């Protein structure tokens, strides 16, 4: 594996995901509070259902918080993070992120097959936010394992989804890298041009232009 490819494995695949999750929690917490006021004047049965859902929501938040704490703890080695995340019981809501973090750590270590196996074990979530991040991470892992065609299919799937929760400028950058890796130089060049044209203020301008320069020297 080339040095640049190894470096890309160590990049944080969740750089946009965590901030998006926090925004989602903030938005839906307001919804829950508003619902509680309305419930006070309706049937007890509906109130009970809401309480159950609220409890589940709180439990998911707690598990997500634990997963984030483990993942971002600089005092833990990657192996220790993997061990602790493996012990968390993830649900199908926000806490499913723990399994994504685990797959991401395998990828960071270069344990691509373990990462792919982990992705196969992750059930579909009832949150699009989690499902979209799973698709993005799976595409990155497939690209790292040499399965560029399958990875590109997933990138295109995310780009075609108008409601996707992932940052499309980041998807385009990853797509261009995968096309370059697959020696689809013209396609990679077009993808970078699209990225810079559609997202002129993207934080990935430097990385996109660096890749553009590499392609021009081929």
Describe the fold and architecture.
The chain is mostly helical. The protein has a domain at 3-142. Helices cover 73% and strands 0% of the residues. It has 11 helices and no strands. Helix 5 (97-108) runs antiparallel to helix 6 (112-121), helix 9 packs parallel to helix 11 and helix 10 packs antiparallel against helix 11. The model is unreliable at 5-10 and 30-55 (pLDDT under 50).
Morphology: globular
Give the topology string: H per helix, E per strand.
HHHHHHHHHHH
* Poorly predicted residue ranges: 5-10, 30-55
Q: What structural category do the secondary elements indicate?
A: mainly alpha
Q: Strand share of the residues?
A: under 5%
Report the helical percentage.
Answer: over 70%
Condensed summary:
With 218 residues, the chain is an all-alpha fold.
Keywords, separated by commas or semicolons:
218 residues; mainly alpha
List the SSEs and their pairings.
Blueprint (H helix, E strand, L loop, with lengths): L2 H7 L7 H23 L4 H28 L6 H10 L9 H12 L3 H10 L6 H17 L3 H13 L7 H14 L3 H14 L6 H12 L2
Helix pairs in contact: 2-3, 4-5, 5-6, 5-7, 6-7, 7-8, 8-9, 9-10, 9-11, 10-11
């Amino acid at each position: 594996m080339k040095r640049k490819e190894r470096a890309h494995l160590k990049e944080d695949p969740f750089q946009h995901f965590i901030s998006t999750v926090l925004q989602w929690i903030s938005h839906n917490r307001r919804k829950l509070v508003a619902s509680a006021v309305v419930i006070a004047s309706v049937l007890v049965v509906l109130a009970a259902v809401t309480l159950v859902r609220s409890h589940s929501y709180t439990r998911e938040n707690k598990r997500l918080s634990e997963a984030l704490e483990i993942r971002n703890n600089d005092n833990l080695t990657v192996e220790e993070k993997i061990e602790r995340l493996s012990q968390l019981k993830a649900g199908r809501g926000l806490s499913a992120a723990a399994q994504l973090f685990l797959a991401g750590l395998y990828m960071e270590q270069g344990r691509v097959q373990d990462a792919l196996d982990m992705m196969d074990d992750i059930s579909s979530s009832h949150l699009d936010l989690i499902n979209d991040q799973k698709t993005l991470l799976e595409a990155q892992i497939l690209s790292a394992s040499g399965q560029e065609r399958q990875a590109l299919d997933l990138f295109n799937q995310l780009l075609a989804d108008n409601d996707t929760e992932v940052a499309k400028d980041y998807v385009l950058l990853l797509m261009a890298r995968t096309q370059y890796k697959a020696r689809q130089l013209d396609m990679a060049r077009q993808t970078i041009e699209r990225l810079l044209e559609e997202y002129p203020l993207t934080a990935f301008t430097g990385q996109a232009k660096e890749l553009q320069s590499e392609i021009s020297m081929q």
